[in-house]
Amino acid sequence: MVQIKSEQFQKEVLESNVPVLVDFSATWCGPCQMMGPVLEQLSAEYEGKAKILKVDVDESADLAMKYQVMSVPNMIFFKGGQKVDAVVGAVPANFLKEKLDGLL
């Protein structure tokens, strides 16, 4: 799973031709750390079909503000450059898979 910064967001997320799950998280956040391995697994599983990217809210506060990320982990789903769904908090892998499958 690749971590991106604000300047890469336009190209990697908004201009992506596949659905994107963006994990807004922070290094100090326990539940975010728990989601790490789950998202790594999904990233491998959906390679070529969807992108799973990470944004550190402390490093990219502008993006966190723009997408109204008030708590982390906050996973936002994008399709065609638009925010289409969001999940806040640690959730099971199959819950995220259902959401991703719905966007494919």
Short characterization:
The protein is of the alpha/beta class.
Question: What would you note in describing this structure?
Answer:
By secondary structure, the protein is an alpha/beta fold. It has one domain: Glutaredoxin (3-Layer(aba) Sandwich). It has helices at 6-14, 30-45, 61-66, 93-103; strands at residues 2-3, 20-25, 51-56, 74-79, 82-88. The protein has a five-stranded mixed sheet, sandwiched between helices. The chain starts with a strand and ends with a helix.
Question: What are the salient characteristics of this protein?
Answer:
104 residues, alpha/beta, Glutaredoxin, five-stranded mixed beta sheet
Set down the secondary structure blueprint.
Layout: E1 2-3, H1 6-14, E2 20-25, H2 30-45, E3 51-56, H3 61-66, E4 74-79, E5 82-88, H4 93-103
Parallel strand pairs: 1-3, 2-3
Antiparallel strand pairs: 2-4, 4-5
What ranges have pLDDT less than 50 throughout 5 or more consecutive residues? none
Backbone shape: globular
Structural class: alpha/beta
User: Overall pLDDT, averaged?
Assistant: 97
* Helix percentage range: 40-55%
- The total tally of domains equals 1
Strand arrangement across the biggest beta sheet = 1-3-2-4-5
So, the CATH homologous superfamily?
A: Glutaredoxin
E-strand count = 5
Count of DSSP H/I helices: 4
CATH topology description: Glutaredoxin
